[in-house]
Amino acid sequence: MLLRMTDNTTFLEQGIRAALYALADTASRANLHLKPKTITKSLKRRCMAEMRAIAVLIRRLIMLMALSIQLAPLKPRAPKPASKIESAEDVTASFGPQPSGFSLAPPKAGPPIRCLNGVYMVPKRSVDAAPVIARLVALIRILKNPEPHAKRLARTIQRWQAKGEARPHVVPMAARHRLDPELGLVASLLPQLLNEALKGWADTS
User: Fold this and answer.
1) Residue 204 lies in a domain
2) In total, how many domains does the chain have?
3) In a domain, 80, yes or no
4) Residue 118 falls within a domain, yes or no?
5) In which domain, by residue range, is 137 found?
6) What tens digit of pLDDT does each residue of 41-86 get?
7) What is the pTM assigned to this prediction?
8) Do the beta carbons of residue 146 and residue 65 sit within 8 Å?
């Protein structure tokens, strides 16, 4: 399994560095580096929105990296009972499992407590910060060691091609204007670079 040196090497390095800086900026503005127990709901929404956008870029950077990997010819494997078929989700799932209670929606109310009938309850304005911090840490770990994820995706792409799957087409990312300038530039260039790298894919669509 060899990495082909391509003109994208410098771009990938810059893209990964820009994504790391963006995550550090998110953590700094939310004081996540201080490992708070709780954060406000609005802050959680903002952090998760920023990290969702960065995660899209990370997936695309990893795909570009995967398309630069030259694999040995695919060998038939003996079927394994109850094994999960490898797919693109095998890579993106590594962006961090969503902890239980991750939804931004408030928890369902339980039965009313009789002694509190008629008492005004102040709505809770803070939420657990642990899921947000866990997501941040998971993304940083991927950026610091993206090669295993790229190799898994390269193998997945090889299987897709062997099955005659249609060539994917990468569209521009939505809401690029919300990203910082350097990350926005990376987001703007990725579709062109990915679609160029995918030209060698035999399109059967």
Assistant:
1) no
2) 1
3) no
4) no
5) 2-73+88-99+125-198
6) 999 999 999 999 999 999 999 999 999 988 877 666 666 665 444 4
7) 0.71
8) yes
